[in-house]
Predict the 3D structure of the following.
Amino acid sequence: MRVFERIETLEPAARTLIVTHRMRELLGRAAEGSIVNEIRRFELFTDGRAATIALDHPDLIIERRALIQNLAAEAQRAGAKLELGRRFHAMHANGKGPSGKGPRGKGPHEQALTVEVERCADGSREEVHADAIIGGDGAASRVARAAGWAPLETVPLMQAIVPLPKDMPADTVRVWFVPQDTPYFYWLIPESATRGALGVIGESGAETRHHLERFLEKRKLDPIEFQGARIPVYKRWIPVRRAVGGGSVYLVGDAAAQVKVSTVGGIVTGFRGALGVAEAILNGGASRELRTLRRELDFHLLLRRSLHRFQQSDYSRLVDLLNDPAKKSLGEYSRDEAWKMLWRVCLRQPRLVLLGLRGLLMRSKSIDKTRA
Ligand SMILES: Cc1cc2nc3c(=O)[nH]c(=O)nc-3n(C[C@H](O)[C@H](O)[C@H](O)COP(=O)(O)OP(=O)(O)OC[C@H]3O[C@@H](n4cnc5c(N)ncnc54)[C@H](O)[C@@H]3O)c2cc1C
């Protein structure tokens, strides 16, 4: 297997990310080597109200650069050839391969797809042949465009690295719901005892930066640096395989919008997507992981639809309704088991179901108004 990556060295920008403990099961050793902190509590704030949720299984703060380096080392140990400074440029079906005109051959020139790979340093191109290509090239995936998938809708995510406030323990994440600024939320995630990432997801880039700067000012936090990018929005399940001539093209991660749209976290779901594609290739198309991932992503979409029209009074009610048994259920399951978590929460506080339904109805009313 050959892996093409456009960056020139395995020294990508450092960035800390928060993931659920599911990451440990998925990645084992590669995950362990990149963990820099563990999170045991979430504090939720809205309009002067607060709720604390203690996690039974800590969330993990991971360092992206270390994770990438560990994964690269594991891939190489497993026999993959890593080719850095090479960019996927284009591909076409060449009439060979399993269902093409020619017989399936063993040599590279008998494979179904021809891929053009560009050397980033000088723009020179090389042709590579394969029966299957996997595009894990992010939200603006060139592999997806070349194989005919439609472009994805994206939202801006921005965060500032800040000194951690003195009153904030290093094992606690803070979340603020401020619906007049964003239908998503602000967060402050400690990456160590002294620094944290304060971020927000918005709908337009300029507005999101403005809101983040105002929020930093209000909290008297001086940014050390800013980080940001566009994150794909999961709108519906994107089939991960397309036949191109006699070959197959697959997508994983952000390229297939495998992002939990309630929290816009894409690391664990992206790895699940990758595991699913591996299963599908090995089992002739069937993958249990892809089925369960789809169900999970659809469930987060339903949640997002409900939360997206929440007003201040709804968030205040949400925090007020979080009684002790409901908070306990929120801490028992991770965001990567949203089904189980919300089922238990709603059993323990049924009025939350009504609040969720209200969010969904508000949404359909506002859609009806736009259509009218
Ligand atoms: C600031 C920020 C904070 C985030 N925080 C979190 C978080 O806390 N938790 C979480 O779960 N998620 C978080 N996310 C989202 C998460 O980072 C993404 O969902 C995840 O990185 C997706 O992984 P990916 O491999 O699919 O895509 P990417 O991480 O985008 O990787 C794509 C790779 O493909 C390479 N590439 C692109 N085009 C080509 C090409 N033509 N040829 C060759 N190589 C190419 C790129 O160089 C890159 O290495 C955050 C995102 C941002 C921007």
About this structure: Residues 4-7, 15, 17-19, 87-88, 136-138, 142, 157, 159, 227-229, 231, 253-255, 259, 265-267, 270 surround flavin-adenine dinucleotide (CB under 6 Å).
